[in-house]
Amino acid sequence: MNALKRIVITWLATARGGAEKSSFELCQSIRRRYHTEVALVLWHYGEAFDFSSLGQGAESEVIHCYDGDEYRRRLADALAVSSASTALFSNHRAFQVDLHLASRRGVKCAVLFRQTPLADGAFRTLPSPASSELVYRRGAELDWGALQRATALIGLSDFGARGIASFAPQHPRVVRIYNGPSMPGENIAIRPRPVRRFLIVSRLISWKAIDFGITAFSHLQRRYPDVHLQIAGDGEEEPRLRQLVNDLGLSKQVAFLGFRDDIQRVYQSNDCLLHLSGIESFGRVVIEATNHGLPAVVPQSAGTGELVINGHTGLTFRPDDLADCVRALECAYHLSGADYIRLGATARRRAQALFNSDRLAEEYVGLANSMLVS
Q1: pLDDT of residue 58
Q2: pTM score of the predicted model
């Protein structure tokens, strides 16, 4: 048995979003708690992203790559250091390259699915070890033969793990490891207040269902004209969403904030988070909002549905049910001061117990150690 000396984590970044935050946090959590050598090999796909705010104070090595050839070369170099004592955590986008290089170096490799494979939904992935271009693949179209070589397959939630297992029923090790978003250094006071300012934090892409949320908000706003909605994030759907807001006559009630590095301030200036996607693997913004004292309204499905207990830590609605989403928003609008504090405090306690960075590091280091003896 070789003692664990080094963990290498990879990610192929197509934006500045939750997956990128989570990749940095995973490295930092492991390094801070275990002092294990950690390297993040980060492929900037399509453009050079500014991740300086995420890497501040990090003791982990961050290896920035800007094309496929550089990524393959630098990952191979990273895996050559203490190969027999190294564990590699790959991802659903780059697993073809990572598994190939890990095999050549004799490094044990697990694959983390930050999106859940679905029969009727596609995500982007590299189709072969030599490819440098992402393509869309549905769950059944992924190379499950290659994935069978991974020591473990990781989902971010029970929903995610079930999705993986449905396509890889013979794989001996499909595990769930919840994300552990970083939390504020001290608890932010939860003060009773009327819920009038709603917030969406998301990439503006189709499967995030932001249009559904805007439509639900429009029904709420007709009944309660004093409500407002802020949308923090950017993405390809922004022009269409802005047009929808104008068509619904909500240009004065809905504000697009773009991508925000100061997202903590945005949380603190709002009253309730609205999260829409019914196929989310985890939904880290729900935990971020909880840590800032905001209750969340989410669909009772997928990974996000595992984060909120209806009426105890937030409010849920039936996925794709517009009327039920409006009902949940109305419930939030009518929360008493005492109920607002109760929801926020209970949600924060649950998040601190289940979705914290110490637990995250412990589970990944435990898995890495077990990989070296498998």
Answers
A1: 56
A2: 0.94
Q: Which residues pair with 256 in a beta bridge?
A: 231
Is the domain spanning 197-354 CATH 3.40.50.300? The answer is no
Q: Which of 367, 357, 275, 348 is nearest to 21 (CA)?
A: 357
**Dihedrals phi, psi of 47, to nearest 5 degrees:** -160, 165
Beta-carbon count within 10 A of 183 CB = 19
Query: For the domain with range 6-180+356-373, which CATH number is right: 3.30.420.40, 1.10.443.10, 3.40.50.2000, 3.40.50.200?
Result: 3.40.50.2000
CB 350 within 8 A of CB 313: yes
**Residue 154 to residues 92, 109, 210, 231, 296: CA-CA distances in angstroms?**
10, 11, 27, 30, 26
What integer best gives the mean pLDDT of the chain?
Answer: 93
User: Would you call 310 exposed, middle or buried from its count of C-beta atoms within 10 A (0-12, 13-18, 19+)?
Assistant: middle
In whole angstroms, what is the distance from residue 320 CA to residue 56 CA?
39
* pLDDT(154) > 50: yes
Q: How far apart are CA 344 and CA 316, in angstroms?
A: 15
Tokens representing residue 363 in the block = 């589970």
Sheet with 61-65: strands ordered across: 61-65, 37-44, 6-13, 86-91, 108-113, 152-155, 174-176
Per the CB < 8 A criterion, the answer to whether 351 and 188 are in contact is: no
Q: What is the DSSP letter of 9?
A: E
Amino acid at 18: G
Which sequence spans correspond to the domains of the chain? 6-180+356-373, 197-354
Question: Which residues make Cβ contacts (< 8 Å) with residue 118, sequence separation at least 6?
Answer: 138, 139, 163, 279
Quote the CA–CA distance of 116 and 348 in Å, as a whole number.
26
B/e letters for 14-23, b = 16+ CB within 10 Å, e = fewer, are bbbbbbbbbb
Termini Cα distance of the chain: 9
Among the listed residues 188, 218, 192, the one whose alpha carbon sits nearest the alpha carbon of residue 293:
188
Encode pLDDT of 45-78 as tens digits: 988 888 876 755 457 899 999 999 999 999 999 9
Q: Quick one: pLDDT band at residue 270, thresholds 50, 70, 90?
A: very high
